[in-house]
Amino acid sequence: MTEQKKPPYGIIAILFTGAFVAIFNQTLLNIALPEIMADLKIEAPTAQWLVTGYMLVNGILIPASAYFIQRYSNRAIFIVAMSLFSFGTLLAGVAPVFEVLLAGRMIQASGSALMMPLLMNVMLAAFPIEKRGQAMGVFGLVMVVAPAIGPTLSGFIVEHYSWRILFFIVLPIALIPLGLGIFKLKNLTFQNRELSLDKFSLVLSSLGFGGILYGFSSAGTMGWGNPYVYGTIIIGIVSLTLFVLRQLKLKEPLLEFRIYKYPMFALSSVISVVLSMAMFSAMILMPIYVQTIKGISPIGSGLLMLPGALVMGFMSPVTGRLFDRFGAKVLAIPGLSLVVITTYLFSQLSMDTSYFNIMAIYTARMFGISMVMMPVMTNGLNTLPMKSYPHGTAVNNTLQQVSGAIGSAFLITIMNTRTESAGRELAASGAAPESIVNAAMLEGINFSFFVSTFIALLALVLSLFIKKPVREVTETEKEVVYRQKEVTES
């Protein structure tokens, strides 16, 4: 990859469109799962595989994205990724049975897994350090608004039409960037590196990240005592340990872990992981509270989260500009302070908490997150040399997938454990049986948010150590930029 003098806005626009569709699709089925269960006559643990399977494929393929990005051109990767995504979407839309639907979802995931790392690498290559905050802020808009719109649209469609319409809405939207990619997309890379793919590393990576993701994703439904859960987690941890040790010995690793020798990248990576875990508390627990305890419809649940997503989308370019001017620390400390306060407020929910009060707290929380996520991530990536950009983005995306799964399972387990103990306490106190279930679940949700407050507080403490990285451009990089400029002008 090479840093451009003039950003190729046409290329970036095409990649943005593809990334938006891929990310938008990720949360589209969450609210539609009950309808799919009824239509295909499957149980909840089976239906959950439509989400878990998507996550697993992402977790397995994202670590390999660094190899693909260095080995092949951005045009070739984009066309293959969008072709896979479009075919998977069509297959899922016409699926007569669950197995075909699951296959379609996993093919979709194989395409979308390459989109985020590809777009981030193009952004890093296209913009100089002093302008990356603004560019990554716009990227953050796609990253946040797309998955937030998914549940709202899904709730409306499911209430009025078949769940299959969801896929037939996505398909034409996916075909547009695919067509643009085939006829309009140009290569941004100066030359492709001749790399050999270490197949054993790919196997270890798949077993490691796949095992951990599967184990933690299944814990919420199967329970931690299930041998499939702790067995796959153990296999995942052992495989991941062997994977890391092997990468440190290879001259051209599948995933470069030596980038953690750069302190600001390591710090930003840890903060992003901790913040991702805290974020999932609201994304998972709020729909449970709103729909189960408050009795609000799926579309009402989706609309409750929409203002927060819009605020975050609006703020992403703004925080990008502020990052370019003031750095990440000035944004991260007040942003994470707001996340800590709003997460604590969510731990004080009651049966009578109003819809608009919940919406206001959630919107304020998303405003705080918008000040942190992309600035901190960009600050870490800015400290890396150009050759390490593919590895930096691959590591960040992989860890976010893994921490998201772990955070989800951890917080759901805490909620279930506290709900059970609260239920026993209420039953022993002589409370009316009809009031015990909701009261116990509310206690579980509040306690889970309380724990999540301390997770967010850890991210706040870590943000105190953020510094603005200084990276000197090497003579080799200057020469590559000069040669790229010659190619572009010719």
TrEMBL record:
Coiled coil: none
Domain Major facilitator superfamily (MFS) profile: from-to ranges: 11-471
Main location: membrane
MF (Gene Ontology): transmembrane transporter activity
Xref: Gene3D superfamilies: MFS general substrate transporter like domains, Multidrug resistance protein D
InterPro entries named among the record's database cross-references: EmrB-like (IPR004638), MFS (IPR011701), MFS_dom (IPR020846), MFS_trans_sf (IPR036259)
Location in the cell: Cell membrane
Pfam family, any one: MFS_1
Superkingdom of origin: Bacteria
Record flagged with keyword ATP-binding: no
GO cellular component, one term: plasma membrane
Transmembrane segments: 9-29, 49-69, 76-98, 110-129, 136-157, 163-183, 195-216, 228-245, 265-290, 296-314, 326-346, 358-377, 445-466
Assigned keywords, A-Z: Cell membrane, Membrane, Transmembrane, Transmembrane helix, Transport
Alphabetical list of PANTHER family matching this protein: MAJOR FACILITATOR SUPERFAMILY MULTIDRUG TRANSPORTER MFSC (PTHR42718:SF9)
Family: Belongs to the major facilitator superfamily. EmrB family.
Protein name: DHA2 family efflux MFS transporter permease subunit
Source species of the chain: Planococcus salinus
